[in-house]
Automatic annotation (TrEMBL), chain A:
<keyword id="KW-1133">Transmembrane helix</keyword>
<dbReference type="InterPro" id="IPR025857">
    <property type="entry name" value="MacB_PCD"/>
</dbReference>
<dbReference type="GO" id="GO:0098797">
    <property type="term" value="C:plasma membrane protein complex"/>
</dbReference>
<protein>
    <submittedName>
        <fullName>ABC transporter permease</fullName>
    </submittedName>
</protein>
<dbReference type="InterPro" id="IPR003838">
    <property type="entry name" value="ABC3_permease_C"/>
</dbReference>
<keyword id="KW-0472">Membrane</keyword>
<feature type="transmembrane region" description="Helical">
    <location>
        <begin position="264"/>
        <end position="289"/>
    </location>
</feature>
<comment type="similarity">
    <text>Belongs to the ABC-4 integral membrane protein family. LolC/E subfamily.</text>
</comment>
<keyword id="KW-1003">Cell membrane</keyword>
Automatic annotation (TrEMBL), chain B:
<keyword id="KW-0067">ATP-binding</keyword>
<keyword id="KW-0547">Nucleotide-binding</keyword>
<feature type="domain" description="ABC transporter">
    <location>
        <begin position="6"/>
        <end position="239"/>
    </location>
</feature>
<dbReference type="Pfam" id="PF00005">
    <property type="entry name" value="ABC_tran"/>
</dbReference>
<keyword id="KW-0813">Transport</keyword>
<dbReference type="InterPro" id="IPR003439">
    <property type="entry name" value="ABC_transporter-like_ATP-bd"/>
</dbReference>
<dbReference type="InterPro" id="IPR017871">
    <property type="entry name" value="ABC_transporter-like_CS"/>
</dbReference>
<dbReference type="InterPro" id="IPR027417">
    <property type="entry name" value="P-loop_NTPase"/>
</dbReference>
<comment type="similarity">
    <text>Belongs to the ABC transporter superfamily. Macrolide exporter (TC 3.A.1.122) family.</text>
</comment>
Length: 403, 240
């Protein structure tokens, strides 16, 4: 009978009920959608990092990543690469020579990472060609070509087809330098990356560095991120003595982005829920005050305090539950649509790209997150129902009946 | 010897005790026996509502105590008192008596439901009472679909349904036209006789006072008269 009264009470004040239902719908919608959006943003960030910078797995000499010294190259690098290439779980793999060095022009110099790449394989791995905004990709017939970012070009006041000087330490620790002609300019969504990476053909740099035909990095792109752990273990067994790291280990800050992002989402969610709770408490408090006389009458007739408490609690709860389906439907609909179309942030993309975020976001939500949101909403509902219900308990029948 | 239902000893209710004390009730003694049909009259502010609230356990006296069927209800606390009211006292208020979201039938069942009475007994009682109050055709109507008089009749049926020790009614006819008031009073009188139900009600209405078998007059929180003016008339109606 409590349930009967509580559920019928929902429709007593249509305006009030609609307020709460609307608030719950919007809150839920905003909460779910925001979480999905954030997921999309982070996923995009991770995907971009994997498919255009890091790849899934990287192989190095165990000492290499400490100081990036040339002498720690992979002695059997090319053989290893051949074996890896045959694995069906692997989408693409390529060898590189990575050197920390300097780029100089007439107007300045800058510390950079020189990526000596295999043009055809690198294209499959990181789609370097696709990032070019001006000029042409490496020409197999030519030597000493360099691709650098538009950003670096501006900084060093360089121009397409002009020459620039790369300087670095070779295997023996002697200074080596050579002139490279700028054949193309690239741009990614990750500004810090653009600032510090230039590309040359591996064949133009290996002899110069004193390691002809060698490789000091192998990058592996898998068919799917789900194969990460399995493939890493497999490679470790196959190539003992080689350092084999996945993207999380190579770029721990990226893993951190993911977990910080998760926390941010829940903080936002908390704010939304708090606003929601505040609205519900207020509205239901009004409802209790409006019904002072009626509650006094129920107390007089012999409805005990627990039952009165439960009645208000249930009513609040039902109202919130009534709002849930709309909110969820709205959220799923908008996620469904934007998942296909994507949300274009290119207008703000300068701001976003300075953090390494892509400008088109595809929201998505995991079922675990959905369950968590639903639980949070229910908890909020319970929490916000407590105050009006408690208020009802403080009423005194004789006084209430005079109202 | 008539069985005592209500026994109020030395009841006082003082408001604003610290500044200027207002004696809403001033050392009232009252004795009500089973089967009485008693009106409490008096000018506005004389303490009628206060007295009914005290004997109904809705408010706590400043002094004195109330015994219902031998139980000192002034000593009961919180839910104990609420449960005592549920199981012993029927209430009819001046207006907005009914639970707006429940139908006439559900309203009449309400108290019996709280008491967890068997469903069969409840059904039977509701049918019986709906017939008594002449609203068999309004069984599924919500209060707002009923007239004021019909609402008050449902309220009386609800109070009576669980067969409480007595029924308190604070100005039950105050918002009714004279025909509805007369009708309600007839029902109350009939139930008083058929079920030997004790009624105590306050009123301003002289016609209602005329139908009571005992009239208690309050003035400034004191009982100034306690008479039985219609005893003779009542006996005549019984002979008819
Ligand atoms: N909560 C309160 N605080 C202060 N004084 C009160 C309070 N309730 C009642 N009183 C005073 O107590 C006295 C008795 O009031 P009560 O309501 O019992 O009168 P009544 O006979 O029922 O009047 P009416 O015929 O208008 O209903 C009045 O003087 C009233 O002002
Ligand atoms: Mg009164």
């Amino acid at each position: 009978m409590l349930t009967k009264i509580a559920s019928r009470n929902i429709w007593r004040s249509k305006k009030r009920s609609l307020t709460i239902i609307t608030a719950v719908s919007i809150g839920l919608w905003a909460g779910i959608f925001m979480m999905a959006f954030y997921n999309g943003m982070i996923e995009q960030r991770v995907n971009t990092a994997i498919t255009s910078e890091l790849s899934h797995i990287q192989l190095h000499h165990p000492e290499f990543r400490k100081e990036y010294e040339i002498k720690y190259y992979l002695p059997k690098g090319r053989k290893t690469l051949e074996i890896i290439d045959k694995d069906s779980k692997i989408k693409a793999a390529s060898g590189r020579i990575i050197i920390k060095g300097m780029i100089a022009s007439a107007s300045g110099s800058s510390g950079i990472t020189i990526n000596g790449v295999m043009p055809a394989e690198e294209q499959k791995l990181t789609n370097l060609k696709g990032k070019i905004i001006k000029g042409n990709y490496f020409n197999p017939q030519k030597t000493n070509e360099i691709i650098l970012s538009e950003k670096l070009r501006k900084k060093l006041k360089l121009n397409l087809n002009k020459k620039t000087i790369l300087t670095f330490q070779d295997k023996e620790g002697n200074l080596a330098s050579a002139a490279f002609r700028i054949t193309a300019l690239y741009k990614t969504t990750n500004t810090p990356y653009d600032d510090s990476n230039v590309f040359v053909k591996i064949t133009d740099i290996d002899s110069l560095a004193g390691i002809p035909n060698a490789i000091n990095e192998i990058a592996v792109l898998l068919q799917s991120n789900k194969l990460l752990d399995e493939s890493q273990t497999h490679l470790k067994q196959k190539f003992p003595g080689t350092e084999i790291k996945n993207w999380r280990e190579i770029a721990p800050e990226l893993g951190l982005t993911v977990s910080v992002g998760d926390q941010m989402v829940f903080i936002f969610m908390g704010i939304i829920l708090l606003a929601l709770a505040f609205g519900i408490v207020n509205t239901m408090m009004m409802a209790v005050l409006e019904r002072t006389r009626e509650i006094g009458m129920l107390l007089a007739l012999g409805m005990n305090k627990f039952k009165i408490f439960m009645m208000i609690l249930l009513e609040t709860f039902f109202l919130i539950l009534a709002g849930c389906p709309f909110g969820i439907m709205l959220a799923f609909a908008s996620i469904g649509i934007t998942q296909k179309t994507g949300i274009d942030f290119s207008r703000f993309s300068d701001v976003y790209s300075s953090f390494g975020y892509s400008s088109i976001i595809y929201p998505n939500l995991t079922s675990r997150q959905f369950v968590i949101i639903m639980l949070l909403v229910l908890l909020t509902a319970l929490f916000s129902a407590l105050f009006p219900a408690r208020r009802a308990l403080q009423l005194n029948p004789a006084e209430s009946l005079k109202k | 010897m008539q069985e005592t239902v209500i026994d109020a000893h030395n009841l006082s209710k003082i408001y604003d005790e610290k500044t200027i004390p207002v004696y809403a009730l001033n050392k009232v003694h009252l004795h009500i026996s089973r089967g009485e049909f008693t009106a409490i009259k008096g000018p506005s502010g004389s303490g009628k509502t206060t007295l009914l609230n005290m004997i109904g356990g809705l408010d706590i006296p400043s002094e004195g105590f109330v015994e219902i069927n031998g139980t000192n209800i002034t000593k009961l606390k919180g839910n104990e008192l609420i449960d005592f009211r549920l199981n012993n006292i029927g209430f009819v208020f001046q207006s907005y008596n009914l639970i707006p979201v429940l139908t006439a039938k559900e309203n009449i069942e309400f108290i019996m439901l709280l008491q967890k009475r068997p469903k069969k007994e409840m059904e039977q009682r509701v049918q019986e009472l709906l017939k008594e109050i002449g609203l068999e055709d309004k069984i599924n109507k919500r209060p707002r679909e009923l007239s004021g008089g019909q609402q008050q009749r449902v309220a009386v049926a609800r109070a009576l349904a669980p067969k409480p020790q007595f029924i308190l009614a604070d100005e039950p006819t105050a918002n009714l036209d004279s025909v509805s008031a007369e009708n309600l009073l007839n029902i109350m009188l009939k139930l008083n006789q058929e079920e030997n139900m004790t009624f105590v009600f306050s009123t301003h209405d002289q016609r209602v006072i005329n139908r009571a078998r005992r009239v208690i007059t309050l003035e400034d929180g004191k009982i100034v008269a306690d008479t039985a003016p219609t005893a003779v008339i009542h006996e005549q109606t019984e002979i008819k």
